[in-house]
Amino acid sequence: MSFNTEGIIFRQTRMVQGRRMILLFTKEYGKISVGSNIGDKGRSRSSLALRPFTYGYYQIYEGRNYYELDHADAVTSYYAIGEDLDRYAAGSFVLELTEKMIPEGLPQPAVFSLLIEFLQELEQRSRKYMTLVLAYELKLLRILGAFPVMGPCVVCGRKEGLHSFCVEEGGMICDECAGKAASDGHKALIFHTENDIVNVVDYFVRNPLRSFAGVALSDKAADELQRILRAYMEYHFDLGRLKSEGLFSVKENGDGKGKE
Length: 260
Ligand SMILES: [Zn+2]
Prior knowledge:
Layout: E1 2-14, E2 20-26, E3 30-36, H1 45-48, E4 54-62, E5 67-77, H2 85-101, H3 109-124, H4 129-143, E6 162-166, E7 171-174, H5 175-183, E8 190-192, H6 197-206, H7 219-237, H8 250-253
The structure holds zinc ion (ZN).
Zinc ion (ZN) binds next to strand 7 and helix 5.
């Protein structure tokens, strides 16, 4: 049988004799692997719909234990994302991160909508991409039910002195608990924060992505929050290193526009 679904291309892998495996994020079925003979170089509608940063309709044949792409139709191609290296890097990172964080074959309609909103906003944005990526990451964590505890202290419940984030415990910890953890030798996954990340995170979660068009964190604050979230996601989702991080990461290019 065949079915039609809205989808976003996560990535494709070239196989022998012009065949490809496409990792497709479908609205109805979540992340699925689909085989295809359609190339992405031609000018046909189906070819255009296989390019990166495209949202389209995909007609898929479901075999006994495989999927095959019959036909594809682009709805929107966010091609301008690829016109700037930093913007492209931010987009590639978010696609790879999302792909790794969602399970296979499980519908994730809220993540799907969020990802389309992100691609729209990213295409329009011309600088400070890290701010938008951070807002996306926080919303993604919330949808997946894995949001960190931003207070009170995740260890003892104290409301004051929340200046550190503990990756292992999954949230903010107070100065006393941070000191105790340090003297016990559990320092590796504790980040001392210099910025008011509790309020920043709260603001990011309460406002829709489209409201971030004119919002930009300082490079320092953005780098700090990204370091924390990256370590948190790596630890709790078993991410490992992502390929796209060669282009997009805190250490190498900060917010994409150099350091202060
Ligand atoms: Zn505490």
